[in-house]
Amino acid sequence: MRRTKGIGEVISDELKPRWVRDLTRFLPLKSQFVLTGNVRDLQIRALGGRAAAASLIEVLAATLNEAGYADIVRFDPVQGFSVIPNLDSTDEIDGPLLRLGLTPSNGRAAGGGDLLATTLQRLCELDEAPLALIVDFASRLIVRNDALSPAEQQLFTRALVTSQSAEARPVGPDRAPRFNTIIWIVEKEGDLPDWLTIDNPRLRHIPIAAPDRAARRAVAPSLVRGMPGGREASADTLEVAQEELVDATEGMLLVDLNAVAQLARAEGVAISEVSEAVRRYKVGVTEDAWRKIERRRILDGAETIQRRVVGQDHAIVHMLDIVKRAATGIGGGGRSGRPRGIAFLAGPTGVGKTELAKTVTELLFGDESAYIRFDMSEFSAEHADQRLIGAPPGYVGYDVGGELTNAVREKPFSVVLFDEIEKAHPRILDKFLQILDDGVLTSGRGERVYFSEALIIFTSNLGIYSTGPDGERRANVTSDQPFAEVQSRVRGEIENHFKLVLNRPEILNRFGENIIVFDFIRSEVAGKIFDSMVASVLADAASSGHPITMSADAHAVLKELCTADLANGGRGIRNKIEAYLINPLARALFEREADGPTVIKSITAGAITSLELESA
């Protein structure tokens, strides 16, 4: 008699999944079973004395064979009926189908929902050796659960009646009672009519859980041996590879572990690089883009960034440390699955937080616009998280997916910027727990999107203002305080916000020591920013055919006007330059008939700022 290799092998009790033990325990007591949950994953079975991964149908057949079922038939809505071979049976391959009154051919018989209903009745009336019928993809037998068609109604009414009228008969040397068992395999218990599954004393619902660490550890030895170099590796090397596979695949299914091993064989990833095989499987990218970043670009990064982010040297050093960790793979990504790096940039407005994120992106990609940016002020509504991860099934936009999950799936190697995170709804912050802890986010369509290759940056103005006992909003830090005090007070207010206001200290813990507090724009720094911005304006004017210079007096007046109030940081200086230089200069040049080099002799501020120009 033909059979699938390994079907009849006995799995030791300590390796058997819980659902297998439950099924075995209730076979003498229940006539029907509903298996739900992780039914499309591989399951644990024995192979050559070791645990290995096999399909659910194979493990079911082995369990039923061991329990005394020599004849097992599988049904699915596409292929109809088929016999699952059993080496211990002496019957012909078509024997089980003939017992059910079907017309077989080489172990198969066509059949649809109507014939299945009739077969259920015949199954209940069979005598002699018990027969098990596995109805696979049973969720697809119903179009709408709340509005059954007549044929669907008839099918499941037969199933209900059969479950109550079935009788167990003693089987085998120990005379254990056995039913002609029906096993329904569905994704969710609610996929079948409630009146069949709920309060039915002859039907048992058995959920199949996702594999835990013990299950992954059980199949890891057989998988790593099949990787390149696995058969020649020492016992210590195998042990290290097994642990690395188990650690790197947290939250993944056994079918994913099996695919990782297949990918490693296909692409020649050695047993010593298990985490690399897992990384390739997760993000679908063969090369590690982080390793391709030019070392010199990062080494010279401080000088590059300081040209655009002035007066925040401590923040630049801290940010570059995070980038260097990301590039070397230390502390993020890889085995842990967490993002390559995480940074929380806090401080006053206009001090360079977003500019630092842009500059780091340019440092890595050569293009500051290459980052994925989300303005979190647009996600203040409770259900705005659906924009990020996608709408759940049944809702408008389900087929489109989420903006965040789609973007990271397309560009796994990226900088993801969440601007002004404090403005997002607290419910959305919960989504970041998955990202920061496991480096994964489940979309509305149930797809797992991995962030293990991403650098995550948050910006926030938290800690600059606080709410007093009277509910009034007041400044928590001011520019006349030393930076050490500013840093301490901002950190304290951030902690209070996450712990006391949001009641989510776990999110704060994910940031750890990666909270980078920016200083106020001090007067000496403001002068450098002012000079840089003015030089940029004059360079733009020259490139447009208007060579402009400024007298010392005009420059001094403009500097005083633009740096008198630094409450809005560099952004405030830019706004003042626009008001006191760019706008009046454009007006004066437009009204002036003479061309050629021009000198700004003086600036007069007022309701309408005016410039005095003369030819150079």
Structural notes for this entry:
By secondary structure, this protein is of the alpha/beta class. The protein folds into four domains: 18-208, Rossmann fold; 213-286; 295-517, P-loop containing nucleotide triphosphate hydrolases (Rossmann fold), CATH 3.40.50.300; 523-615, Orthogonal Bundle (Helicase, Ruva Protein, domain 3). 42% of the residues lie in helices and 16% in strands. It is built from 23 helices and 23 strands. The strands form seven sheets. The protein has a seven-stranded mixed sheet with strand order 6-5-4-7-10-1-11, with helices on both faces. A five-stranded parallel sheet has the order 13-14-17-12-20, with helices on both faces. A hairpin with a 5-residue loop joins strand 18 and strand 19. Helix 7 (213-225) crosses helix 8 and helix 19 crosses helix 20 (505-511). The N and C termini lie far apart (103 Å). The model is unreliable at 1-11 (pLDDT under 50).
Task: Outline the fold blueprint.
Layout: H1 18-26, E1 32-37, E2 43-47, E3 50-54, H2 56-66, E4 71-76, E5 80-83, H3 95-99, E6 108-109, H4 113-125, E7 131-135, H5 150-165, E8 169-171, E9 176-178, E10 182-185, H6 194-197, E11 203-208, H7 213-225, H8 235-248, H9 254-267, H10 274-283, H11 295-299, H12 301-306, H13 313-328, E12 341-346, H14 353-365, E13 372-375, H15 385-389, H16 403-410, E14 415-419, H17 426-429, H18 431-438, E15 440-442, E16 448-450, E17 455-460, E18 465-467, E19 473-475, H19 483-501, H20 505-511, E20 515-517, H21 523-543, E21 548-550, H22 552-563, H23 569-591, E22 598-604, E23 610-615
Parallel strand pairs: 1-10, 1-11, 4-7, 7-10, 12-17, 12-20, 13-14, 14-17, 21-22
Antiparallel strand pairs: 2-3, 4-5, 5-6, 8-9, 15-16, 18-19, 22-23
Helix pairs in contact: 4-5, 7-8, 7-9, 9-10, 18-20, 19-20, 21-23, 22-23
